[in-house]
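Here's a chain:
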Amino acid sequence: MVTQITRGIKISVLTSFEGTYFKNYKIHFAFTYQITIENQSKDSVQLNSRHWEIYDSLNSKEIVDGEGVVGKKPVLKPGESHVYSSGCLLASPIGAMKGHFNMINFTSTKSFKVEIPTFKLSATFALN
């Protein structure tokens, strides 16, 4: 698990390799990740959008921007957490992801970024 705290918001990431399959005559490597967003600050906050940079060992980079996370824009009061799972496909068995969440602080009404630490995506057979 990797974790990082930005402005009182703790992000924790767990990953899992789900297997391989063929799509459009090419092999793809499927990964899932579980993100825990924990509000350790004294203010209520809301996650509005996300930005991802997805890399694989073949040197390709994909940028993904979108609203919320899996269709939600969670509001977190102090001490609350939000957990969600998602996934991605890579063209190679090894890769990584990083990014940030765009959030708003309800007390100050200011927007801020919460960094998502870089986490590795590795197929179990590719670790040796």
Observations:
- Strands lie at 2-6, 9-23, 26-39, 45-56, 61-67, 75-76, 81-90, 94-105, 111-122.
- The longest strand covers residues 9-23.
- The chain has one domain: 2-123.
- The chain has a mean pLDDT of 95.
